[in-house]
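# step 3/5: fold
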Amino acid sequence: MADLKIGDRVEAIDDVISGKIVKINGSIVTVDSDDGFSLQFDSSELVRIDNDIKVSNYEVALVKKEKELPKRKNIKVVKPKERNMPKMEVDLHINQLVKNPKKLSNHDMLNLQLETAKRQLDFAIRKRIQKVVFIHGVGAGVLKEELYYLFKKYENVKYYDADYQKYGLGATEVYIYQNY
């Protein structure tokens, strides 16, 4: 680079080295790095850096004006297919609820799963979540039947098999009617 001269601050293009030019011999430039080393580079490997940044009052005013403009909010467009998707999933598989299910009897497991389902359903009603999918698995169908018995106790709830493509036969979707 022809515009380099002794005393200029430079940085190496392909390295994290910066410093001051102390000697120029043809295209070989000697740089005293900020780390205290004297290094030689080809002039094409260096770029001059200016520490003085000059900004006019007009440019400052433009930036301030741009910052004062209200930001446009990004509104997420819900696709028709997503509109019908459940907002909440509750996995009732026992290994998702406790660390060591082998210590529990079948009765204790079922009670824990039903308490979790009831607690999550009450939470969804309180938070006005319209759709909840309870993943219960296929098994012998005991948990599914107990869940149906639980759901029948709620007046504002409708339940049916969840999306087969996503969950198979092992899930029930609950629709909660909201009283606005």
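# step 4/5: annotate
Residues 106-126 form the longest helix (21 residues).
# step 5/5: archive (pending)
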